[in-house]
Design goal:
Cyclin A, domain 1, 186 residues, two-stranded antiparallel ribbon, globular, mainly alpha
């Protein structure tokens, strides 16, 4: 959502290629052979429906995907809705003005989960991704970013530009972490 503010200013200079990464997969206690995207529809997952739905929205074109993705992020992070709930996802699709019959038909296509498998595997193997959001810049520099709260719209551009300078311009900086008083890390 804060990145949308950056996109308004940078325009075509900022190309965002949203990729899927499953925290549920990376944090699974089931072992390396277990794959979220291979589980049956009856398996409860906090995130798989959202990945599946985003890919169904992508079939309606890049603009439809962007509208749906932004609405889904808002539902999850601002409105605190349960995006594992099919009714919530369908409501988000309505808000994003998707073709609902087509969207629901595409949600039944499990082949769309291949994109989750491909994106997740590439993120781990190529970039060492362990969390979200992770930003990957054209030079291959990548950074996991955690912000609470997200920057105000008027600050989003400066935050992004500084982050870009550090990650893409200074590859010798490999980690920055703020200590939090009263929080034990051992």
């Amino acid at each position: 959502m804060w990145l949308a503010e950056v996109k308004k200013v940078w325009g075509e200079r900022l190309v965002v290629n949203w990729r899927y990464f499953s925290l549920e997969q990376v944090n699974s206690q089931e072992g390396p052979e277990w794959k979220l995207w291979e589980q049956p529809d009856s398996y409860y997952s906090r995130g798989r429906l959202a990945f599946h739905a985003a890919e169904a929205a992508r079939r309606q074109g890049p603009e439809a995907f962007e509208r749906f993705h932004l609405a889904l992020l808002r539902a999850r992070h601002e409105e605190k809705k349960d995006i594992a709930d099919r009714a919530v996802v369908l409501d988000v699709a309505r808000q994003a003005r998707l073709d609902l019959p087509r969207f629901e038909a595409d949600l039944r296509d499990r082949a769309l989960l291949r994109r989750l498998a491909e994106d997740h595997t590439q993120a781990v193997e190529r970039y060492g991704v362990f969390g979200t959001p992770t930003l990957v810049f054209p030079n291959g520099g990548a950074a996991y970013l955690k912000m609470r709260p997200a920057p105000a719209p008027q600050d989003a551009l400066r935050v992004f530009e500084h982050l870009h300078q550090i990650v893409a311009g200074w590859p010798f900086i490999t980690e920055v972490k703020r200590p939090v008083p009263g929080v034990r890390t051992t």
